[in-house]
């Protein structure tokens, strides 16, 4: 773990040395989010507004509001997109039924599904072809698992809670595999796998990790500093699975208190009472400018000393969606 000390220029330097900020790294944008947001921006640039996006391109209020101001129309379903128009599928992925509906309505599409979500779709297809029962660990109602399950609905059962483990039914105990949503808590998922394996001892593991590098790296980083923190502030939106998990992981790893906020202005000053060390991190869909605004806000209140706690250096980047590659010169 590497630590780098810095000082926020905003506000007066703190005289109380006990007041400091630990800033997690990695935090914020992952490669899949970066690619999806750029895809929408390029679509706006190339074709002009309106560009339709099915669901939120990524689960971040600031990103969605900013794109909306620039001419993006967010819809819940492709049926709301006028015939012949351009629609972008979000980073969380869509089921084959959604692709089919878009084709039927002659929509032009750009698929911004993260390649790491597509990888899980392919795993579902492969195990379904081999006639396995697939126990998909994930959250009820989350768009990603709706898309993933939709690849082979007759083979997939969603396992969210411990009750779902008890309810799972399989046809052949030698042909059952677990797969997962990409943005879960690593520890909680392993608990669920242990519970499943108690019921199904021959449960097969995924060919490779489904929880993505960005989700697990951000959890490792927040864990590394949580024990030293009186308060952890996670920048992220309420519907962002990976951001919500960072709050839970921080608390489990020893943070005395933790909250999820979209903007610095949402910090309740009472949370800071008696607090020395504040941990700061952000979800994979969060632009770093929001974290910088939070650091300025904290500096103005005496938490100007910032120490970055680095547990990994991420270098991963994905090529733009196929539909944009030649056009965008990438
Ligand atoms: O964490 P989830 O899956 O809810 O999505 P979010 O958009 O917040 O970040 C990663 C992606 C896509
Ligand atoms: Fe892809 Fe992971 Fe980012 Fe989701 S959180 S978009 S799976 S890299």
Summarize the structure.
Its cofactor is [4Fe-4S] cluster. With 330 residues, the protein is α/β, with parallel strands linked by helices. The protein has eleven helices and 13 strands.
Shape: globular
Q: Which stretches are low in confidence, meaning pLDDT under 50 for 5 or more residues running?
A: 10-16
Query: What is the average of the pLDDT values?
Result: 96
Main beta sheet strand tally, sense and closure: 6 strands, mixed
CATH architecture of the largest domain: 3-Layer(aba) Sandwich
Question: What's the CATH topology label of the largest domain?
Answer: Cobalt-precorrin-4 Transmethylase, domain 1
Measured as a percent range, the helix fraction is 25-40%
Radius of gyration: 21 Å
Bound ligand species: prop-2-yn-1-yl trihydrogen diphosphate, iron/sulfur cluster
The total domain count is 3
Class of the largest domain in CATH? Alpha Beta
Number of strands: 13
**Beta-strand content bin:** 15-25%
Tally of individual helices: 11
Structural class: alpha/beta
Describe this structure in words.
This protein is α/β, with parallel strands linked by helices. The chain folds into three domains: 20-29 and 213-310, 4-hydroxy-3-methylbut-2-enyl diphosphate reductase, catalytic domain (Cobalt-precorrin-4 Transmethylase, domain 1); 31-113, Rossmann fold (3-Layer(aba) Sandwich), CATH 3.40.50; 116-199, 4-hydroxy-3-methylbut-2-enyl diphosphate reductase, catalytic domain (Cobalt-precorrin-4 Transmethylase, domain 1, 3-Layer(aba) Sandwich). It has helices at 31-47, 61-69, 96-104, 115-129, 143-149, 162-167, 186-199, 213-226, 241-252, 288-300, 322-325; strands at 2-7, 20-25, 51-54, 72-75, 86-89, 108-111, 133-137, 156-159, 176-180, 231-235, 258-261, 277-282, 305-310. The protein has a six-stranded mixed beta sheet, sandwiched between helices. It has a four-stranded parallel beta sheet with strand order 4-3-5-6. The structure holds prop-2-yn-1-yl trihydrogen diphosphate (0CG) and iron/sulfur cluster (SF4). The site of iron/sulfur cluster has 15 residues, from helix 1, helix 4 and helix 8. Keywords: 4Fe-4S, Iron, Iron-sulfur, Isoprene biosynthesis, Metal-binding, Oxidoreductase. InterPro entries: LytB/IspH (IPR003451). GO terms for molecular function: 4 iron, 4 sulfur cluster binding; 4-hydroxy-3-methylbut-2-enyl diphosphate reductase activity; metal ion binding. Catalyzes the conversion of 1-hydroxy-2-methyl-2-(E)-butenyl 4-diphosphate (HMBPP) into a mixture of isopentenyl diphosphate (IPP) and dimethylallyl diphosphate (DMAPP). Acts in the terminal step of the DOXP/MEP pathway for isoprenoid precursor biosynthesis.
